[in-house]
């Protein structure tokens, strides 16, 4: 089994972040240590009504009312998988594994050693495996949280794999709803990662509340406003910034900041919230062992020129988009969960003391096999073909009430 599992696998990673803007999907071939090849990527936005449902559910502890939401979100992920397979001209039998992050609704990391945090991610791995006929690994965070880790961030080990040939130290910054950074040093194994503070989340909330917009496109609104220094200084006194990493945030941690900008003109509110995201990065550098030679920015924030300019000016550093180094900055986290799925399959660590505060390197993830099927032959390396039903034929076998709804809008080793 060990020899078989050393073979590179084709994994399909799925990511829907705390911005709840949509689903990213990416194909990646990897052995969980190095990346052999990148395949096509795909993005599908959530319908507005579904996004609003997700945003309303943020911060709520688990409840039975989320069962339907979990099913709908899982069905949307199935839609995205089949759209990507069509784009790549692949069948389900040609994909070994799906890494399914799911949708985070609640995340409360431990605040001191000895505490156990809470995390709630809605992701129906068994349903997704049945719908797609591909083994699914989900719930990547649970084992880390159960052992006293922060449960986030999970992507640093993928950042390390991608940056092997880049000069060190380097900082890789992902700006989603929450911003997180991975600092990688020149010595082997030197890695520190943590959430820096709000990313796009507060900005998105503010423009949606005031103008019905999904985001500040291109940072144009922030560029028209004035930063309120008094409010910014007040926010930076939050105890999170003096807390030693590793540390993680919930999207709602700084939600009270929205109350503070209600007295400001709309554009000034956007500018001040954008400046807060940047100021949090400056605070983050106080925890770095050394100043990075380069910052690489990925995620939605990489498409905000105003934000990038603010980062470069405030940090007095070389700041580049991840895409400038040939990385797919938009699909980076989706690729990461394909990578992590293979690591989970092989019982390799996903989290580390320097990334989540875990007591030791820990694997994680939950596996779901396709309904009434053995593992794909590509994983077990058997000879012969596997009977793969198309998604359409699978839907025909289901009753009307069981069929997924399609919308046009846009670590244990397996034995």
Structure characterization notes:
With 415 residues, this protein is α/β, with parallel strands linked by helices. The protein has 2 domains: 2-156 and 330-395, ATPase, nucleotide binding domain (Nucleotidyltransferase, domain 5); 163-325, ATPase, nucleotide binding domain (Nucleotidyltransferase, domain 5, 2-Layer Sandwich). 35% of the residues lie in helices and 19% in strands. It is built from 16 helices and 13 strands. It has a 6-stranded mixed β-sheet, sandwiched between helices. Helix 7 runs antiparallel to helix 11.
Q: Short description, anyone?
A:
This protein is α/β, with parallel strands linked by helices.
Number of helices: 16
| Beta fraction | 15-25%
Q: How many separate structural domains?
A: 2
Which regions have little confidence, pLDDT < 50, spanning 5+ residues? 376-415
Ordered list of secondary-structure elements with their pairings:
Layout: H1 2-5, E1 9-15, E2 22-30, E3 35-45, H2 48-57, H3 66-88, E4 97-100, E5 103-108, E6 118-122, H4 125-132, E7 136-138, H5 142-146, H6 156-162, E8 170-175, E9 178-184, E10 191-198, H7 201-211, H8 220-224, H9 229-235, H10 257-260, H11 266-285, E11 294-298, H12 305-315, E12 319-321, H13 332-345, H14 353-356, E13 366-368, H15 377-380, H16 391-397
Parallel strand pairs: 1-4, 4-7, 8-11, 11-12
Antiparallel strand pairs: 1-2, 2-3, 5-6, 7-13, 8-9, 9-10
């Amino acid at each position: 089994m060990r020899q078989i599992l050393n073979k590179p696998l084709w994994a399909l990673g799925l990511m829907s972040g705390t911005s709840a803007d949509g689903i990213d999907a990416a194909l990646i071939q990897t052995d969980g240590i190095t990346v052999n090849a990148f395949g096509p990527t795909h993005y599908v936005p959530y319908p507005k009504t579904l996004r609003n449902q997700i945003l309303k559910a943020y911060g709520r502890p688990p409840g039975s009312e989320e069962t339907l939401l979990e099913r709908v979100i899982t069905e949307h992920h199935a839609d995205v998988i089949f759209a990507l397979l069509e784009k790549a001209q692949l069948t389900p039998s040609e994909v070994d594994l799906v890494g399914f992050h799911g949708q985070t609704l609640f995340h409360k990391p431990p605040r001191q050693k000895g505490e156990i945090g809470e995390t709630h991610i809605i992701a129906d791995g068994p349903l997704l495996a049945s719908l797609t006929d591909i083994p699914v690994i989900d719930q990547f965070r649970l084992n880390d949280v159960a052992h006293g880790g922060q449960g986030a961030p999970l992507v640093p080990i993928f950042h390390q794999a991608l940056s092997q040939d880049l000069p060190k130290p380097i900082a890789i910054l992902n700006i989603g709803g929450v911003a997180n950074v991975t600092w990688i040093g020149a010595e082997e194994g030197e890695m520190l990662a943590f959430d820096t503070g709000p990313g796009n989340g507060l900005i998105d909330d503010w423009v949606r509340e005031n103008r019905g917009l999904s985001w500040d496109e291109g940072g144009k609104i922030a560029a028209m406003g004035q930063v309120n220094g008094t409010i910014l200084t007040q926010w930076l006194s939050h105890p999170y910034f003096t807390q030693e990493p590793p540390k993680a945030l919930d999207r709602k941690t700084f939600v009270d900041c929205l109350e503070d900008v209600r007295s400001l003109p709309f554009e000034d509110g956007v500018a001040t919230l954008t400046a807060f995201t940047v100021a949090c990065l400056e605070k983050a550098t106080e925890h770095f062992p050394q100043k990075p030679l380069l910052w690489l920015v990925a995620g939605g924030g990489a498409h905000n020129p105003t934000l990038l300019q603010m980062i470069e000016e405030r940090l007095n550093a070389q700041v580049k988009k991840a895409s400038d180094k040939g990385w797919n900055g938009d699909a980076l986290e989706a690729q990461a969960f394909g990578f992590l799925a293979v690591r989970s399959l092989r019982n390799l660590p996903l989290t580390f003391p320097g990334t989540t505060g875990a007591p030791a390197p820990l694997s994680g993830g939950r596996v779901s096999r396709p309904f009434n099927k053995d593992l794909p032959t590509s994983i077990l390396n058997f000879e012969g073909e596997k009977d793969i039903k198309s998604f359409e034929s699978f839907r025909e076998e289901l009753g009307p009430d069981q069929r997924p709804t399609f919308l046009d809008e846009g670590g244990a080793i397996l034995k």
